[in-house]
Each structure stands twice: as structure tokens, then as C-alpha cells.
Design brief:
Blueprint: E1 7-16, E2 23-33, E3 38-42, H1 49-56, E4 64-69, E5 72-73, H2 79-87, E6 91-94, H3 98-101, H4 108-118, H5 123-133, H6 153-165, E7 171-175, H7 183-198, E8 202-207, H8 210-214, E9 219-224, E10 227-233, H9 234-239, H10 244-252, H11 263-274
Amino acid sequence: MSAAPVLRLRGLDVHYGRGRGRRAALRGVDLDLAPGETVGLIGETGSGKSTLARTVLGLVRPTSGTLSLAGEDVTAYGPRQWRALRRRGLVSYVFQDPLRSLDPDLTLGHSLAEPLLLQGLPGKEAAARAREFAPRVHLDADLLDRLPGEVSGGQRQRAVLARALVTEPRLVLLDEPVSALDAAHRVKILDILKDLRAQGVALLFISHDLGSVAGTADRIAVLHHGSLVEDGPAREVVTRPQHPYTKLLLASAPTLRGAGGDRATRARLRAALTA
């Protein structure tokens, strides 16, 4: 018997505004994410990726549909219930920009311990656990005494990842976690993410770049204008895309020649999307 999904969305609609200014940010999204599974959520700016992430984190309330986390229906949760759920550490979020997501006046060790302090752990115990946890993301414990501005970009991103994981969440949302890193640091972070799968952590890897998740994700889900237009095994989506928008993303992806696919192919696919 397969494990119950850590994340389950059914018919999820999110609308912003009222009256004539009302617009749909998400339309009827169905998505499951199992323990130890990595799903790449792909789409251009404005496709609905951020809205979906904010909804899963309880920062946006669905207009209709249902949202379940670890079998718990949280669709109608209010702010107080969401705060309690987040403090339990069930869901964590990794921001795109590690420098902006870390307090510049706090050491890395203090930032790592902060989620544990919010859970009620005593200060010394939280600090000790943070120091023990750092090596799991290949972060030297000696760096925990430094400020974010005193370490490299790759080390900051590992600190952000450690902070998201120190509460041992069931689900981690990652917003473009490697886009600001050079190739060497990108490989290290992706290797850490692969290790998390073996530990049963579910990952929702949010990106506009299909290529950055193709080698990491088990499945790829493609958002276009708020609708999930394709969802399947990563290899199949990359090698046999079904929707014109997915084909357009693949045609626009950087190639070994350094160009973004064939211009004529991109034009033909864009025409198919607007037909």
C-alpha cells in the first residue's frame, strides 16, 4: 500500500480582487506529493507558482477546493491555526535569495536555532541541536558563529536549507533554491536535496527553469495561467511533453550551444498557445 500524500490539492481555486477587478490566480489545481517524493513545479513568472506556495503555507486562503497536509484538512484554517501548524514544523520554506532571508544582524547559528526556539525548546538545547544539524547539509559548524555577510553564497544557502530542515518537516517548499549559485555550489545543494528523499522528506521544487529540476525531480508539474496543464514522471515530461506550453518551455531552455532552442519552434508553439 502506498503512503498517504504529504500534500494533497483538489480543485484548488484562488482569486484575487473583487468585482470587475477579480482575477483567477489558480484554477482547479489537483496535485499530490508523497513522502520522499520531489515534484518540480514549473512555470513562467505569473503562472501561479508563488500563489500556490503561499496557499500551501497558509498565507493565502483558497477561494474553493481543498488543501490537506499529512492527511489533515487545513482548507478552512484561520491565522491562529496556521501559526500553530507552522510552529509544529510540518511545512518549511526555502527562499530564493539566502542573503535577504537571513537576518544580517544574527549569526547563522542563531538563525538555525530560531525555529526550535519558536517550538519552545530551551535556548542552550536549541543552539546545540542547530550545531549538530549543520553537518547534515555540509555546513561547517565553525561557520555558525559568523554573520550572513561573512560567508559565501553557497554557505548562506546551506544555512537557509538547514534552518528549514532543523525541525524535521514532512514537506519543504523550495523557491528557486539554486538560481543564485554558481555551478559548483548548485551541484552541492542538489545533492543535498537528493539525500533528503531517502529520509522521506517531500520536496516541492519551484522554478521557472525546467532544466534545473529535470535531474532532481521525480515528477514535473507545469503551471500555465493558473492551471496545471501537465503532470507526470520527469523523464516523460522532458522527452515526450504533451502540452504546447511544456514544449515551449523545453524549446526555450538553454542548450549545449548556449542558445535557447530554435526560434522558429518557439514561435510556432507560442502561436499554438494563443490559437
